[in-house]
Amino acid sequence: MTTSPAIEIAGLTKSYGDRVVLGGVDLRVPAGTVFALLGSNGAGKTTTVRILCTLLRPDGGTATVDGFDVATQPAQVRGAISLTGQFAAVDELLTGRENLVLVAELRHLPAPGRVADDLLTRFDLTDAAGRRVSTWSGGMRRRLDIAMSLIGEPPVLFLDEPTTGLDPQSRLEVWATVRELAGRGTTVLLTTQYLDEAEQLADRIAVLHQGRIIAEGTLAELRQLLPPATVEHVEKQPSLEDVFLAIVGGGQQEETQR
Amino acid sequence: MTTTHAVRDTTTLLKRSLRHVLRSPDTIITTAITPIAMLLLFVYVFGSAIEVGDGRYVDYLLPGILLITIASGIAYTAFRLFTDVSSGIFERFQSMPIARSAVLWGHVLTSVVANLVSLVLVVLVALAMGFRTGAGVLAWLAVLGILVLFTLALTWLAVIPGLTATSLDGVSGFSYPLVFLPFISSAFVPTDGMPGPVRWFAEHQPVTPIVNTLRGLFAEQPVGDDGWVAVAWCVGLLVVAYALAVRTYRRKIS
Q1: Does B2 lie at the interface with A, CB-CB under 8 angstroms?
Q2: pTM, entire model
Q3: What CATH number is given to the structural domain containing A109?
Q4: B48: which residues sit within 8 A by CB, 6+ positions away?
Q5: How high is the ipTM of this complex?
Q6: d(CA A145, nearest CA chain B) in Å
């Protein structure tokens, strides 16, 4: 683990017309950590990720990824990252292996076929490798999607709601993958609306609410935001869910605000 | 350095997109089937009532049918691009360190290849129906050159709805006017018999000089000014369509 942050964001803003999506986001993701950006739908998670991946220009503020400025050095940023978006971005008309070879070729790796075969083995997709992805299950597609993101071993990986829409079994598989990546020293920024996912995977968690970071820290630090229980007959730590709901001020606020 | 990079990425994406075409050969058949149906209909049904001078009507008709083939074929470029954008793979490419232009060029070159295959199918049917030409290698190369230029121009035009459409209907709708343009030109009947304003339009729109040029090349006749006017139209359309498409693309990705 190095001291320089893999991702650093300061005062990031983005609006669509009158609608403020990001109202000044500050964030520091230490290299080699798994960092969860937690928030409800519409909190601004995907917008933040899209800005960091150079897919969207911010209105104001700065952001650097792996030391490169997203606004002035977008090409270098793209060389240092991989994005797994909210919906599996795989080519359905190609086979699983062809998808992997395609990405390896686009990253100009010397042996695209070998890279593909290694990843197929690692993600337990070898049996389906020769079939078109349109015949694959959602969980398999998501695994392929993540496998495609690992090609070229970029130091920073963005996972935008990696388990949304997945069945519990596939979800556990994705979690295992993220843990494995963390073990290899890859910096992972993952967004999620599932509290247990952040609790399970992340070294640090930031809560994004209505375009602002309203809390940030390790799980233990976030727990301290709640006043300690006064009567302690039963020793029960507040779950992250308790913390989340307490600091965003109730669960339904988002819905009524439109 | 960056050019070799762009060429390499374009080749990779061209290979991918050609695989799509190969795996859905129906796109090539569909592209060719409407023009072939028109060819049959006009030659065997309306042809006997159409006066085009002393040649065979199929010889007269084929150039216009070839342009209709291209106009319907380029809709698949819009469709494939739209599918990439809506499936998210477009964003994956954009977040990768690949040449920015390669994403579009891969699709555009695929369009040229797929349209050429459809054109060959249409020409084969025309040959079976009695189309004959004494055109030599140079004349055929000139025909090929004009058809490729026309394909490139319309394909770059198709890139725009492919990038901006919000629904599949929007993607396919844009090509209908292009398919109809040859009807108000010298493609089916000579323009001489058309009433004033229609005739003026027919003689001043791009299809007429292009059709006349192709017809002249097939018939081993001098093409005269039509040749230059046809090339000028194709190049002009290509430049405008390319500029608009690139502008749309830049807006989309920044």
Answers
A1: no
A2: 0.86
A3: 3.40.50.300
A4: none
A5: 0.86
A6: 10
